[in-house]
Write a structure and sequence with these properties.
Blueprint (H helix, E strand, L loop, with lengths): L10 E11 L15 E9 L5 E3 L5 H4 L12 H16 L9 E4 L7 H6 L4 E4 L3 H9 L4 E2 L5 H11 L2 E7 L8 H11 E12 L1 H7 L11 E2 L2 H10 L2 E9 L5 E8 L7 H13 L4 H27 L4 E4 L4 H9 L9 E2 L17 E2 L11 E4 L5 H7 L1 H5 L3 E4 L5 E3 L7
Parallel strand pairs: 4-5, 4-7, 5-6, 7-8, 12-13, 12-15, 13-14, 15-16
Antiparallel strand pairs: 1-2, 2-3, 3-9, 8-11, 10-11, 16-17
The structure holds ligand DWN and S-adenosyl-L-homocysteine.
């Protein structure tokens, strides 16, 4: 019987996405047939209500030297993380001996600003390629997975931290017992652990089921994070909703009793209970909505194909592996995917083998339809691709429902 990775209680599976490849394993054209597949299914803990994957993919298969996601690829995300860094510099890092650690610093999108301010910091990042880019920006990085042993090492070499920050990474880490043991070693008595991740409430509300893939092991609510923090001797002291990546929550966690708990925490948990975010009915309705989106997207793309229309996808996202593999979207339905990331270009999308081409291929010539795989960046992308809409092109969106639009941002 599959059990909760945190509390060991029974897990109830509520959606099976079937056989899926590693979401960020873009395939070199001479390596087709060598892909790793696993069963992507999502379940809920009957006791602590934490939503999680039913199967765990070994971490070294996902996060390594060639990990192809570079956080600085979006202007909006660059601005978001610069503001985050400035916030810490002005609040938590004003003492005599400041120190901030980031778990999963990627290419230094956040710590670059801290480094430029000359404030002591350390990124812990297992993916060597992105870590090297961070270093080239003046960021100090330890190329390793954060866990209890790493935290001990960081503490003995650098001293205790005021802030441990992590964006879009804690949900990637199944072994949270080791993470909290590490935080206990690393944080100053009054220090904070601040992390932001996709919010289960937004995933349910928008049927953004493509947030579910190998790298995203957990899907948090304030309620489940509060239970998690308490389990390891911490308190959830604040929550803030963020508009990025289709809806996230920033959680602030402190040692038990060290900081007052904001009313925002109790308010959000009360709202989650009212909405019934993890009830059997909600999970069944979510599953039904996923199946509708799947059927509608297949129908739309098949119809466009039959009419001889060109469809190109925009953004070779990790998320889109779930959509493309669930719907069986191959090069027969989607001509290619354009993406600004050199590490993805010239390769094929995982499992579905759609060619990935540079961004410039999009306009050469424009297709009739652009399937927006990077729907979470809709505002940024549509703003810079106005010539596509002006040429009569239409965007195909599938969050929260499948539709073709002319270039207005009603996506998220
Ligand atoms: O959690 C994760 C998030 C933060 O990043 C990781 N597990 C992996 C990754 O997920 P993703 O690939 O779904 O993230 P994005 O940010 O939606 O990916 C956007 C993709 O689109 C990138 O490959 C860059 C590309 N892009 C582009 O070609 N033109 C993005 C923008 C904004 C653009 O204008
Ligand atoms: N923080 C960035 C990157 C998110 S992608 C952003 O928000 O854009 C997830 C990152 O987590 C990857 O760079 C991956 O290499 C890293 N990661 C995965 N497991 C980790 C672990 N145990 N410790 C530290 N980083 C980890």
């Amino acid at each position: 019987m599959p059990t909760c990775r945190i509390c060991g209680s029974r897990l109830r599976e509520f959606y099976d996405f079937g056989k899926q490849p590693l979401s960020d394993a873009f395939v070199p054209t001479d390596r087709v047939g060598e892909e790793f597949f696993y069963r992507l299914a999502v379940g809920i803990c009957s006791s602590c209500t934490l939503v999680q994957l039913m199967e765990e993919v070994p971490r070294d298969k996902m996060f390594h030297e060639d990990y192809p996601y570079y956080s600085s690829g979006s202007v909006v995300m660059r601005e978001h993380f610069e503001a985050t860094a400035r916030h810490f510099l002005a609040t938590e890092l004003t003492g005599p001996d400041p120190f901030i650690v980031e778990i999963g610093c990627n290419d230094g999108v956040m710590l670059g600003t801290v480094a430029a301010a000359g404030v002591p910091h350390l990124g812990v990042e297992p993916s060597g390629g992105v870590a090297d880019v961070a270093r080239s920006r003046g960021v100090s990085v330890l190329t390793d997975f954060f866990e209890e042993g790493t935290a001990e090492r960081v503490r003995s070499e650098h001293g205790p931290a005021d802030v441990v920050f992590s964006a879009n990474t804690i949900c990637h880490i199944p072994y949270l017992d080791s993470i909290f043991a590490g935080l206990d070693r690393l944080l100053k008595p009054g220090g904070v652990f601040v992390f932001e991740d996709p919010y289960w409430g937004d995933i349910v509300e928008r049927t953004s089921f493509d947030q579910i893939y190998d790298e995203h092991y957990y899907y948090f609510t304030a309620r489940s994070v509060q239970a998690l923090a308490r389990r390891y001797g911490f308190d959830l002291v604040d929550v803030t909703a963020l508009p990025v990546h289709g809806g996230e929550i920033r959680y602030t966690v402190a040692r038990k009793g060290a900081r007052p708990v904001s009313g925002a925490v109790t308010d959000l948990i009360a709202r989650e209970n009212e909405r019934g975010l993890t009830t059997d009915e909600t999970l069944a309705a979510f599953g039904a909505a996923v199946t509708s989106v799947k059927n509608d997207l297949i129908a739309l793309l098949t119809d466009l194909k039959a009419k001889g229309e060109r469809v190109v996808a925009y953004g070779a996202t990790a998320k889109s592996a779930t959509v493309a593999n669930l719907c069986g979207l191959g090069p027969g339905l989607v001509e290619f995917v354009c993406d600004t990331t050199p590490a993805k270009q010239g390769r094929l999308t995982p499992g579905t083998h759609i060619p990935v081409r540079p961004a410039e291929a999009f306009a050469d010539p424009y297709p009739a339809y652009a399937l927006l795989f990077a729907w979470n960046h809709a505002a940024e992308i549509m703003a810079k691709e106005t010539a596509f809409s002006e040429a009569g092109g239409r965007w195909i969106l599938y969050v929260p429902t499948v539709r073709a639009v002319e270039g207005k941002v009603d996506a998220t």
